Amino acid sequence: MQEHDPRKDNLKETNPEGSGVSRREFLKISSISAAAVPLMGTRMVEAAGDPVKVYGPGKVPVELVVNDKKYQLQIEPRVTLLDAMRDHLEITGAKRVCDRAECGACTVILDGKAVYACSVLAIEAQGKPITTIESLMQDDELHPIQQAFVDNDGSQCGFCTSGFVLATKAFLDKYPNPIAEEIRRGMSGNLCRCGTYHGIQLAIAQVARKGA
Amino acid sequence: MPDYSWPDAEHRALIGKRISRVDSPFKVSGRAKYTYDYHAPEMLFGKVVRSPYAKAKIVSIDTSAAEKLPGVKAVQIIQKPGASVQWAGDDIVAVAAVDESTAEDAARLIMVKYQPLPYEVSDAEPPAGAGESAGPMSGDDIDDAIGNQLPDRQFVEYLQQHGVSFKVEEDDLKEWKGDGLSEAVIDAIRKAQYHEVKGGGHSPYQKAAAQTMGEPDKAFSEADVVSEGVYGSPVITHCCLEPHGSVSEWPSKDQLFVHMSTQGVSGIAGQMAEPLGVPAANVRVHQDNMGGGFGSKFSPDRWGIAAAQLSKKAGGKGVRIMLERDAELEVAGCRPSAYARVKVAAKKDGTITGWQSQSWGTGGPGGGGMPPIPYVFSIPNRHLEHTAIRNNIGPARAWRAPNHPQAAVITMGALDDLAAKLNMDPVELWLKNLDIAGPRKENYREELGIASELMGWKDKWRSRGQNVSGNIARGLGLSIHTWGGRGHASDCDFSIYPDRSVDIKLATQDIGTGTRTTIVIVAAETLGLPIEAINLSIGDTQYPPSGGSGGSTTPGGVSSSTRRGAVDAREALFEKVAPALNAKPEELECVDGMVRVKGDSSRSLTWKQACAKLGAMPITVRGKNPDRTKPPDLTNSGVGGVGMADVEVDMETGVVKVKKMVAVQDCGLIIDLKMAESSCYGALIMGISYALFEEKVMDRTTGRMLNPNMEFYRLAGLSDIPELVVHMMTGKGYDERGVIGLGEPPVISPGAAIANAVANAIGARVSFLPLTPDRVLAALQQKAGA
């Protein structure tokens, strides 16, 4: 445990404002903090030779900015961004399916990047803009990507759909004119059980042609 | 008598067109609410303690530490000490707490002691001469059967056939009744014959009675060609994206309100009433949207009952239990496996004359039945033997087209091997034998022709192993299938209001198959209105009952009840409107938002003006399917379909890539062509998934499932999807048959077609799905060594 871990440097670099704690790291640290004096809120402890910001144990204040709206929460540090939104804010468009970054049904856009909300801790999402499926419609009008999903029947039971729509948005923002092979690769982070991929491929092609 | 029959093609404004789903805008924007999204006021979160053992007796349960944990509001023991656990992951205790984290902590504090027992999780071929358990039932056997949730019918049949090995006491019966055993089974135990106990332990094998038709021995001795092979499909899971589960609350002491993820809203109340001791009329079940069921969501399940019990203990506050992903895969759905050693006899010209099979498979603790083999083709001379394996992998549930995909893999695989042995194009062999393909044989002939065109079969097809370039082998395969799909019982309340609004209420459910859209299309067509003019409420037991969505029975059921309701309501409206148009009611029609004298636009009222003639009171009628007093029938049974696959196999890595799939399908009168095609596209994709990736892998060392997650229980992803071509059969010969369900049939053939295409490509049979690289390489190696 004394060895230098280069991954942590990366974390610090990419998340200068964050706690520097991934969900995996958190599990490691929580065993340390359990032995520390139980105080509410955050404090610094030494973990694997480095100072790390620690939350909890118990509930801590968390502030999230979802779809341009600020929310104040009192939740345990172990609560994921997904569960914080679904169970505490009742923002339920992102779905809990695999709960371990395998299926993409919980996709949200965090700081401009599509992420699996089941694998981001809520404490880690503080101070960054979070965009969910709920914000895509403008003035009761479907976003062109949403309209393309409707036109091409890109949903059946619909439980994967919000994740797919947001993943499509993040993908097309980055690759506005994808070829078929790019769509296949770029959209392979989301899974559907009903088999709506055919409609989804057509929907993405439709938006790519027209522009979103 | 009103004419309910479907309008003919010239008079259809909506039916059969490509119409977007009415609920899609809600699903693409996250506004569609599912059971998992429902948040009751001050809702509590439930967690379930599950057995780590595949088979065990519960010795003791200590919940005291959990009960003392701050935030814990209720604890409910699901299976008491002494009960026998029959699969890993089985529910033992449920706990409810103020948040999910606390519920998880509480579950960890519950101490359950088990006495582990020997278990069986394999479904390998039974050894020759294996013993079987067909003896009388002991008291423990009955306990086991209760634990296994053995269906009543099987339970009673077994007792009638084999009797019991103990003297039945009324006290025992009372106790079993307390465990939830039905009167029918109690009665069967009471009447069961007493037999002396045979010595020896139990065998997992249960042999079904052998079936013989015609003269199989003669057929084989006179055959020009006999082809042999082994074929099969493993146990797979449903892997619903929205897991099984519910939120239950008690608005008052004897009123239960349940939000449940279910395929059968109308059937849930009755299943919850008895175990909870509340009249079914006091149980309200609600569901807006459902995230996938595929046959596995018809029961409230033990965890559903537990959520309601926890809620009651917690003073009625809503309690949510939605299964975690591992539990969803371990306990909430498994499709039985089916394997067979098959011999087929044929003449030189390809005429099939005989079939012989020894099949086996498991559906978990209940064993399970033989798949319908030989499938589609009723081969005249046949001999069938089947052994069911009763093991501890968890109970089977219906999986989209129960038993048919497995039967197709076995049958179509055997026929494909026969074609290869005869050096015959499989399309020719299938066509040659259509005379024995049942009532849909002419449809198959037409569909095989169309599918061959769409696949480019004639140009692409080569004999086995003859289309290889470098490491890459290309091949084609096909399969045909059938299904029933007649509409289930369905009631709806159909209302027309004086302000022109139209309202339909029924307790059906839209499980992603487009039920809402189907209903509003039929209603709008019947009243000559746009679909936006129809208000529809479904998914609540406050509305008239409608059947569960299983076996492709919903489209026929709801379209028939809606059509009857709409026609009756329209006739009632005509009665009120006729005087204003100086016409008789029977001279009127609804077209383009008007009520008018047939064919005469000059004598018409707008829909709004017509409804205003109702005065103060709305019209409300009950539409019913079936209604045998009113011909003609609007739904029908029996469809045919063809699946074809074009694959590429890398013979160095064993990786199979599907390059193209074709589905040609009939389903009577199509209500919405866009949704019908989607159903087929989805089925092809699901077929690719179970053909190449899916298997519930059981560990013999621990008795547990090795891949209860979505990383190692792999579903096909977007990058696995090739060119897909779907052709729906419509028009004369199809439309007039009425509405027939489409959920099951197109998912039946893809697995068999892909397996056959791989055999065609590599020149060797990969016996069992999924067609993973290791299996492909093993088949190649065996071929090289042969």
Give a written overview of the molecule.
The complex is a heterodimer of chains A (212) and B (786). Chain A has 212 residues and is α+β, with helices and mostly antiparallel strands. Chain A folds into three domains: 6-55, no CATH class; 60-132, Ubiquitin-like (UB roll), CATH 3.10.20.30; 144-210, Orthogonal Bundle (DNA polymerase, domain 1), CATH 1.10.150.120. Chain A contains seven helices and seven strands. The relative contact order of chain A is 0.12. In chain A, helix 4 packs across helix 7 (197-210). The model of chain A is unreliable at 1-18 and 28-39 (pLDDT under 50). The longest helix of chain A is centred in the last third of the chain and has 14 residues, at 161-174. In chain A, the strands form two sheets. A five-stranded mixed β-sheet of chain A has the order 4-3-7-5-6, sandwiched between helices. Chain A starts with 5 loop residues before the first helix and ends with a helix. With 786 residues, chain B is of the alpha+beta class. Chain B has four domains: 9-32 and 487-625, 2-Layer Sandwich (Aldehyde Oxidoreductase, domain 4); 40-119 and 244-331, Alpha-Beta Complex (Aldehyde Oxidoreductase, domain 3), CATH 3.90.1170; 139-201, no CATH class; 338-485 and 637-785, 2-Layer Sandwich (Aldehyde Oxidoreductase, domain 4), CATH 3.30.365.10. Chain B contains 21 helices and 28 strands. In chain B, the strands form six sheets. A seven-stranded mixed β-sheet of chain B has the order 3-5-1-13-10-11-12. In chain B, strands 7, 8, 9, 14, 15 and 16 form a six-stranded mixed β-sheet that branches. In chain B, a hairpin with a 2-residue loop joins strand 23 and strand 24 (600-606). Chain B is globular, with a radius of gyration of 28 Å. The termini of chain B are far apart. The chains are: A alpha+beta (212), B alpha+beta (786).
